[in-house]
Each structure stands twice: as C-alpha cells, then as structure tokens.
Amino acid sequence: MFDEVVQKLTPRLTKQDTNYRPSLEPGLKVAITLRHLASGNTYRNMQYAWRVPHNTISVLVREVVKAIIEEYTDELLFCPTTEQGWRDLADKWYQRWNFPHKVGAIDGKHVACKAPPNSGSEFYNYKGFYSVILFAMVDADYKITYIYVSGNGSSSDTQIYNESDLHRGLDQNRIHAFLPPDPLPNGNQNVPYFIIGDDAFSLRTYPMKPYSTRKLTHEERIFNYRLSRARRVVENAFGILANRFQILLTTMQHHHETVRTIVEACCILHNLMRTRYPVLQNRIVDRAQPDGKLQPGAWREGRNLEDTIVVQGQNTASRNGKRQRNLLKHWCNSLAGSVYWQERMVAIN
After folding, report:
1. Torsion of Cα atoms, 338 then 341 then 347 then 349, to 10°
2. How many Å apart are CA 26 and CA 36, to the nearest integer?
C-alpha cells in the first residue's frame, strides 16, 4: 500500500533539482509524513533519524497531506450518489447490525491542538484543553463516509452537526438520490431512512437517538440496546483511527488549519486501509458474538479521542421524530424485527 501511495502521489510531490541541492524523493516525503502521523513525534525529534531539517519536514508534511486529500478524496471519502449506493449502505447496516433503514452513524471527537493566537476561548473545550472537532459519519464497515472538521473546541456536537452540509442536506431533502421512505423489513408502513447518534443530537425523522435513561419501559430498553449496538460502530471507527494515527492523541503543535488538514488526511488513509486490507485491523474493533455478547476491541485498552458530549437532554424532539422512534421501538420488540438474544442482553445490563 505504501508503494501505491508513493506511485500515485509522485506527480504531485516531484520537485525540480536546482544548482544548490537536489530535491527530496517523493518516497522519502511520504515515509516521513506517515511516520509523523503514526507516531506523533515532533519535527525536531524526527530530524535526526531522517537527516532532514525540522523546518523542511514542516513544509513537506503539509505538502504530502494536501496531496493525499487531492488524490484520494473522490475515491475514498464520499457519500453515495445513486439510490443503489444508499440502499447498499442500508442493507449492510441491517445485515451486520440488525438495524433497518439506517445509512450511517454519527459522532464528534476532540483533537487536541495548541492554542491558536488571539483566539480567546474559541478553541477551549469543557474538558480543559484546546481542540478542533472531528465530526464524522461512518458506514457498517467502519469506513468514514462524511467528515466535517471546521468545528472549534468550544462547540458541542449539536452545533457542529447543525453547521454541516449533512444536516442541511437531510433537513432540506437535498441529498442527491437519497432513498424515499419504504416499509421496514416484514412491515407495511413507510418509514424514512435515517442516521443515528447519541443523546447529544436532536431527535428528528432523519437523526434517531436513544430514549432518555429515566424510567425506561422494557420495550424502550430493548430499543436503546439495539440502537446502541449499531451506534458503537462509529466509536470503533474513531478507535481504529486513533490507534493507527497516534498524532491524533497528542497535542498537535501545528497551526489549526494544518490540524484540520492532517485530520482529514488521516481519515482518508483510514479508509484506504479499510478498503485495501479490511481484515487487517479487525482485532482492534469490538466484535459481537453469535449470541449477542460484546467482545471489547483492543482500541479500548489505550488512549482514545475525547468525546464532545457536553450535556444531555437539552434538545427538543420533533413530533414526527418521536412517532418514528416509537414505530422502530415496536418493530424491535415484534416478531418482525426482534433478535433472539436481546431479552438476555437487556437483563444482563
């Protein structure tokens, strides 16, 4: 895969030799950049091992991550543009995670960075450090289908989501070739397709979230378990991402715009590995056993990206969203949609 990346980026990274010195080879630039992303080492620490000055490394890292974004975004980081593409996403969610009409799981995470000059508290988050926010939607195979990295640390999940193109597209029904409502499996009532998130997001027909944890009925607990089982995929995706690119777990000493570019490049490389070598990182993720039990993945043993949840229960829920959630709740508890282990898992919890 390294050879593939070098070959594809060579035209963008090749520079002309001068009378003063020869240019650095594209393979060396890519190797230095990948080492920086994977380890999080500073430029000054890396300069001795690679025999490249730290100020040169700072230039070539920005050059390489921008080349990665330009070369691979259209291939690896995109939402479907056809109805069949959206249907394939929904079918994978149902086949693998037993949740129907779902096309993605969303969440937001903090990526620590140094305080930008003259920014005040704009980048300072409630956990006590400066950060930018990575908001992402993932598919059933832990691949990232949408990212929005324009949020500053002081923002919440809901603010970032409301500012994103994803929210505007769903809210205004402007997403190209998005699936029209149709019946749930073994059902006869049309239900819109949707994404799912945690309690930090507003409840609508297109983003579903769990019931409040207070005074839950048995059926609501079953629904929360089924939804949370499917929503864990986005947490696992972030776990894989941070486990592989540990620069995301450090306090990045870059300009905040460079931080955003690096985060986007890491997401693209994550998708590249999930596409070319899908089995390679499966030991890192949580795995559901045939009886429904969860085997925690290796990513939970180390440091993880910080969640962006600030408060819960402060978002209003639309009537149609409540009605749709109740319908999904009944489906999860009916013969049409129940799975045999759900009663035992709720009893264990």
Report:
1. -100
2. 15
What tokens appear for 137 in the block? 């939607």
What pLDDT digit, counting tens, does each position of 276-293 carry? Answer: 887 776 666 776 666 666
Region of poorest pLDDT, from 66-70, 174-178, 281-285, 329-333 = 281-285
Q: How far apart are CA 114 and CA 132, in angstroms?
A: 10
Rounded Cα distance between 101 and 331, Å, is 12
Tokens of residue 283, six digits: 């030991």
CA angle 319, 325, 331 (to 5 degrees): 140
Residue 110 to residue 259: CA distance in whole angstroms: 12
Q: Are 121 and 320 in contact (CB under 8 A)?
A: no
Closest CA relative to residue 109, chosen from 289, 258, 248: 248
Between CA 88 and CA 80 the distance in angstroms is: 9
